[in-house]
Amino acid sequence: MFSSTRGNVQGNPSMDDLRPYLPSEWSNEERIRTLMGPMPTAQDEVARTARLTFWTAAIHHWCYVTKKFTFTFQESLSAFRRGTQQPLCLSDVLLHMNRLGEVVPLDELPLGEQGEESWVGWGRRVFISAPSRFAWNKVKQALGANNINSKVFVDTKLLQDMCEAVLKSYWKLSLDDHIAGNKPLTFASLYSKVGDCVGSADNLHLVVEALVHNGRAATTVHKDMTYVKLAVCGDLQKPVITQVEIAENELHVAQKGVANNISQLEHEIASLQQEVMLALKAKSKTKALLLLRRKKRSEKSLATQMGALENVNTCILQLQETQINKQVLGAFRSGVEAIRSSIAGDSSADAAATTMDELQQVLEECQDISSLLASGVSSQVTDVDDDTLEEELDQLVTEDQDLSSIDTNLANHMQGLKFPEVPKSNPLASVRELSSPSYSPP
Prior knowledge:
The structure is a single chain. With about 450 residues, the protein is mainly alpha-helical. It is built from 13 helices and 8 strands. It is extended, with a radius of gyration of 45 Å.
């Protein structure tokens, strides 16, 4: 239904409509004129279904292409305006999509952290609040009082797809960057990673709130900065942001900032050193002294920054060691629980003695089998006299010495040989003269 085909704007046929989300039917004047009309009556079920199907798909495609999670009724009218003509059935289409849950008013969309709900609250919400709200909406629609002009709608299908896309994109980038574990990020850092998926920071904020409501993300505010932690792929537990993780993140940010300051100071000191040398060459002693004072102040600041960096690195190492110790302690506790569960059965002294007797019997049987196997192999091996082995070894040594003497004599004989000298003239030249026709014998 949707393609890159463009129609012409009604009232100005020479102007091409460059809106990329428009359906392919946009160039069909007769069909679009019909689709732009009011919603057919309930008796004409075929035409009504076709109108709803077309505009529902068109609105979803518009939201997908433009990455527009939220929109108003007036924005949808402007998006599908055709010259001076607007789709007259769009209000009925939005109400239909709202009933199906494909678009939901922003103030009715469940977002953010879910509080603990009691059984009484759950029963009130399911059996009283939801049916009452649905009935009241039906009454307002029947009376024509359901005003959608002031509402901001959310495309729930697009929101759900973008939530999955953000999770996949984030974890793909995390694997490519070799990030160990799941660490909380600031909202700005998360947007720099997955901003291409959602389009805008407001869209990402809506996605994060939806993920938090579904238990796939966690957020917290620390020093006017929002931290976000996404769930691990395949993990059904809701993520939790701890103070240790926030402290570690702040320490890494401080480490990076101090390292940048040190790099700038080192570059400044090297530049001042060069300027001092140039001033001395120019016989400007006063300027050289001023530059030298600046260099000393920069060196003092560099020493301070180096100490700060060392302190930050020490704090990060101590924090990491604390986490490792916590993991080791947790492993010990798990081991203790495993040992307790393993000996929770029949672990009396009599049972242990019986088990040891059975073990000893099995070991004795294994030892008997090993002895039999060893004796069988040794009986098949022929004993060899040590004197015979020594004679064979002496013979091998004698043969090796004979071969070495032959090689030595051959090398000495080769040293006495001399190769003939290389001729200075071509020996075949006389043969060519005798065979030439102009040659006459003497």
